[in-house]
Amino acid sequence: MTWPIIPAPFTATATPPEAEWNIRADLAAARTVFAAAWNSAVITPLDTCGQVVLSGEGYQRLLASGDPLLTAVFQQYRLWHHQQQLNWSPETRSSILFDTVAVFLAFSRQFLAFRTMGLRIADDGRTRPDPAAPPVDIALSWTDREAFQKFLTDRLLGRLPPEPETGRSRISI
Fold it and tell me: Regarding beta strands 112-121 and 127-129, do their DSSP bridges make them parallel or antiparallel, or are they unpaired?
């Protein structure tokens, strides 16, 4: 089983290192998940999932698509943006799309570079290397973030791009 999750920034260059909210909210549950004997486990720390923002021509295609579902999403997105009083325009870019990377990792590992190691959850909610812990594949960096963002944009527009691993067309995701 593959379980993609989003823990705190992992690399020393991630600033500032902090505990991921869901892990910090229930340390016991997070520790149970990390200690379990999964067949495989993959995580996307904030180092990778915290870099996904759609903008430019692809984002404008999403805004102008006329797709009823996307229209509804953008209406809610504008309300959220206004309520949060953010200092950028929802007409030019998305917020950080953390969860899209975790969902993608449920079926593909393309576009990312990984390191395998054991991890434990410290008392402050941050992940720490632990050679005695079960191994976890960690998406530490992007090999092609722009290709991922194109894949994501195409999928949101209802296009069924080829499977990243095989290049074959798919009927559904």
Answer: antiparallel
- Residue 120 burial class via C-beta count within 10 angstroms: exposed 0-12, middle 13-18, buried 19 and up: middle
pLDDT digits (tens, 9 = 90+) for 9-59: 555 454 566 788 888 899 999 999 988 888 889 999 888 999 999 999 999
For residue 127, which amino acid is it? T
The separation between the first and the last C-alpha atoms of the chain, rounded to the nearest angstrom, is: 18
Model pLDDT for residues 84-141, shown as the tens digit of each residue? 999 999 999 999 999 999 999 999 999 999 999 999 899 998 888 999 999 999 999 9
- Report d(CA 162, CA 91) in Å as an integer: 29
Mean pLDDT across 63-78: 95
Distances (CA, A) of 55 to 11, 14, 96, 125, 150: 26, 23, 11, 32, 11
Residue 20 CA to residue 22 CA, distance in Å, equals 6
Q: Are 119 and 130 in contact (CB under 8 A)?
A: yes
- How far apart CA 94 and CA 96 sit, in angstroms, is 6
Q: How many H helices and E strands in the chain?
A: 7, 5
